[in-house]
Design goal:
By secondary structure, the chain is of the alpha/beta class. The protein has a single domain, classed as 2-enoyl-CoA Hydratase, Chain A, domain 1. It contains twelve helices and ten strands. A six-stranded mixed β-sheet has the order 1-2-3-5-7-10, with helices on both faces. It has a four-stranded mixed β-sheet with strand order 4-6-8-9. Strand 2, helix 1 and strand 3 form a beta-alpha-beta unit. Helix 3 runs parallel beside helix 4.
């Protein structure tokens, strides 16, 4: 696969080997459909194999969202469909493990709402910057499935178990300032400064010792690799949820903008 093969990610080359990758579905707040979800599994291998790239900065098109979760139509196609669930499970794992395997430093510039696979990319980046008024949530419980994706492998490391459990079980939104305070992101910055700051950090890293920087990334990523079995289990539990009644109710509630009445929450 080459850069020209991507349909929903655009690329701009900056000096010193910095590559800007932009999730480009602004008409739907850069939500992930089946194609973009798959492209997020492939991106890191393409970047890793490009000798002209030292650092990749990833952001979302427009000023509303980094990525506003999965398209409801695509997610609905998974409910009760073992084959679709199996395919999505493999891709969700590939996003995480391919990001960890990418030797090049990844910087996320979170310019707005981040949910779902977009949030996984945003928080698994080696360095993450977010605009102060942007909000994100790991919203799995809102649609009746367990937090899988990236959450179990990285949230406890970033913000500690107590906060991770609260936000992952409640599905509450977090804004940029609070995310920085909790340690979920590297920096929260005013909206007008986001890209300048992200590209400045990228340029600085690009001028440094690439062997030293990549070696440091590889060593630190072993903390997450050690949590691989935890992540694999969480991903399997999440995907099982798509085969149950709660997921069907959760998605219908989201689509119709009403409170969910989860079957599992009803008293006998």
């Amino acid at each position: 696969m080459d850069y020209d093969d991507f349909q929903h990610i655009t690329f701009d080359r900056h000096p010193d080997g910095v590559l800007l990758a932009t999730l480009n579905r602004p008409e739907v707040m850069n939500a992930t459909n089946a194609r973009l979800h798959w492209e997020l599994t492939q991106l890191w291998r393409v970047v890793d194999g490009d000798d002209h790239v030292k650092i990749v900065v990833i952001t979302g098109a427009g000023d509303r969202a980094f990525s506003a979760g999965g398209d409801l139509g695509w997610i609905e196609g998974m409910v009760g469909n073992p084959e679709a669930v199996s395919a999505a499970m493999k891709e969700a794992g590939d996003i995480v493990y391919n990001m960890l395997a990418c030797e090049k430093p990844i910087i996320s510039a979170i310019n707005g709402t981040a949910v779902g696979a977009g949030l996984a990319v945003a928080l698994l980046a080696d360095i993450s910057l977010i605009v102060e008024d942007a909000k994100f949530t790991d919203g799995h419980v809102r649609i009746g499935v367990a937090a899988g994706d990236h959450a179990a492998i990285v949230w406890p490391l970033l913000c500690g178990m107590a906060k991770a459990k609260y936000y992952l079980m409640s599905g509450d939104f977090i804004d940029g300032k609070e995310a920085e305070r909790l340690g979920l992101v590297s920096f929260a910055v005013p909206r007008g400064l986001l890209m300048d700051r992200a590209l400045s950090i990228a340029a600085r890293l690009a001028r440094g010792s690439q062997t030293a920087i990549r070696g440091t990334k590889k060593s630190l990523n072993n903390w997450m690799r050690a949590a691989g079995p935890i992540f694999d289990a969480s991903l399997g539990i999440e995907m099982l949820g798509f085969l149950g009644a709660d997921a069907r109710e959760g998605l219908d509630a989201v689509r119709n903008k009403r409170p969910a009445d989860f079957p599992s929450a009803r008293l006998p």
